[in-house]
Amino acid sequence: MAILFPLRVWLSSVASPGRSTEENEFASAKEQERRWLSESPAFFVYRRSGDGGQAVGLVAALETDDGALIWETTDQAMEPVNIPTVVTETQWDIDACLGEVMAGEPLLELRDAAGDEHALWSITDSDQIKLLQLMSQTIDTLTVAVAPPPAGRWPCVIFFLDPAQSNEAPAAWPQLWPGLLIPAEES
After folding, report:
1. How far does Cα 101 stand from its chain's mean position?
2. Which regions of 1-125 does DSSP assign to beta strands (E)?
3. Half-sphere CA count of 88, side-chain side, radius 13 A
4. What is the pLDDT of residues 52-110, one digit of tens each?
5. pLDDT in tens, 130-164
6. Domains contained in the chain, number
7. Residue 172's domain spans which residues?
8. What's the Cα-to-Cα distance from 141 to each of 24, 71, 119, rounded to whole Å?
9. Which of 171, 137, 167 is nearest to 63 (CA)?
């Protein structure tokens, strides 16, 4: 089973190739005021939508030394990222579980040069965090492109496959918008 923990992240980049220089300068100045996305550890919901469909992920710290968790490795190439991505099939109804969060105001929204829309929300409420931790215990298999460390808490984005589709890794490996988030160092 997957054991997830909230974490702290900060924005490393908010400039978007799809924005004008003025929009990027404004966004950068605006985001500087809230460079840390949460004062306390949090889960973050990330959604990327475009012509290729929608990918929803949960940014969290994953405990990697659970012997019951099955790790599958794919050879799909990935761009270098600050937070690696993991893919799993889940029996959760993502809209029911995360829909209320995603219906709220995102911390960050942007459109990239390809026209894909990116949005990020935080979950800081302790009851919501406990619920997500409980639900994450139903995850028993994770597919990774980069092997996690053998023990410890590993910051990553867990993308959820639709259980109605094949449980194989997607043709286009889902990932965060490059350079968007960097996990905080443990103090």
Report:
1. 14
2. 4-5, 9-11, 43-50, 53-63, 70-73, 85-89, 108-111, 117-123
3. 24
4. 788 899 999 998 887 778 888 887 666 667 788 888 887 777 777 888 888 899 988 88
5. 888 888 888 888 888 777 888 888 899 998 876 55
6. 1
7. 4-183
8. 39, 6, 26
9. 137
